């Protein structure tokens, strides 16, 4: 189980909890790959999506900054009445989840462990492409080796990828050039598996697949964290049995920019609202 037993026991129990939304957040558009997977696997659930677009990208921020963002977003989501939170951001999962999770009563799921478990099932020579912060945290390597200490792991930080995706430049020749640069050391190690260590990176699949050997298995942690979320909902008896509400999209930056860019990835135009997060000046104290 991915949520702690203590936090689960502190959830309020009433008839409305099952119909409450799942909170899902990312620094920007990357979390839409997780949202798309949620729509596929558990379409009956309502969703509150938050993109922290005013502070994008996360991958070059410090651990202290990421933990501060995490507290502010989770505090707001708890105020909105979510029943579970899925961190659709590998950087937050790597740098903040374990340090901050117990400050909140809602179950919180991250991407790292589900992605690590899936990768070990695929191969023995595993490459990870991620933001610089996620790569530097060594979170994927540690999680993979905890599952199976016999595999080999290589990680590469890819600072240019998130801005390129956010600018909708996937087909740009420069993106292909950067992808070759980032993948070169992994190809030299003859990897058989590649983890998308950032939720923005599945958008780059057409580019990456042109460079990678055809036998390399691609692992998208979004698929596996939503499978884990569905399992958690079953364990907690929190499945929604009513019709889902339309997804509520919120951003910290410009809503119109997010709406325009998200349309390309979602297949429909969201109507995002700008919200101002609560300012948390110190760690929350748990009750």
Provide tags for this entry.
disordered N terminus; Rossmann fold; 2 domains; 287 residues; 15% strand
Distance between the termini: 22 Å
* Spatial order of the strands forming the largest sheet: 4-3-1-2-9-10
Structural class call reads: alpha/beta
User: What is the CATH-assigned architecture of the largest domain?
Assistant: 3-Layer(aba) Sandwich
The largest pleated sheet is described as: 6 strands, parallel
CATH fold call of the largest domain: Rossmann fold
DSSP summary: helix tally:
13
How many structurally independent domains?
A: 2
User: Which series of helices and strands comes N to C?
Assistant: HEHEHEHHEHEHHEHHEHEHEHE
The CATH first-level class of the largest domain comes to Alpha Beta
**How much helicity do the residues have?**
40-55%
Radius of gyration (CA) equals 18 Å
What fraction of the residues are assigned to beta strands by DSSP? 5-15%
Instruction: Kindly report the average pLDDT value.
Output: 92
- Say how many strands there are: 10
Q: Stretches where pLDDT falls below 50 for ≥5 residues? A: 1-10
- The dominant shape is globular
